[in-house]
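ugh ok fine here u go
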Amino acid sequence: MDIPGPIPLVPCRVELETIRPGKKICHLAAKLVGLDGAVHARATAWLMRINRDVVEQTNPDRRLPPPRDSGTPIDLNFWGKDGDFGQAVEMWGVEGTPFGGGEATVWARLTMPLIAGDEPNPYGVAAALADFPNGISALKPLKDLACVNTDVTVYFGRAPVGEWVCFRSQTNSSGLGLGMSDSVLYDVCGFVGTANQSIFFDSPIIGN
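structure:
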């Protein structure tokens, strides 16, 4: 998913295109378009069939995160504005100092549906929450350094189970004002996938 700029709180529509149809592999593209024709976000997705008879499951050696109830809740109302995305998310920190300096682990869930009246889609929920790792593992507190992600890439090995998704995130800097975040995703059953963002570092956008 590519994010050209801040997405305004205005009515939008989704335009969907099938790039490569197929029964086993399908490639889709979508655009989030305002009523004035402005494109606010672009996304592509590869959909692949599921077949448990092709090859057996492997067990990656990944250290499971601490449970959510071992952590502390995080206040996400950084900007103090109505309609802030953080007001639609509940997040608990279980490792490191989330939003405060370096590698950290959080459990997160949406407190409202992505689209009013629709049943939650586990892929969509996890993809929405995958916008947060640039803050979760920010190299400095957000009042000292802006860590803006220009894109989000999420890989799923399966659909997340339950409403909570865990992100074990770290951010790396090239020293040139650029970097990237890398996250491993878990749910209550274990490893789910990974998420990546390209990062643009700048002067802080949140007042001291």
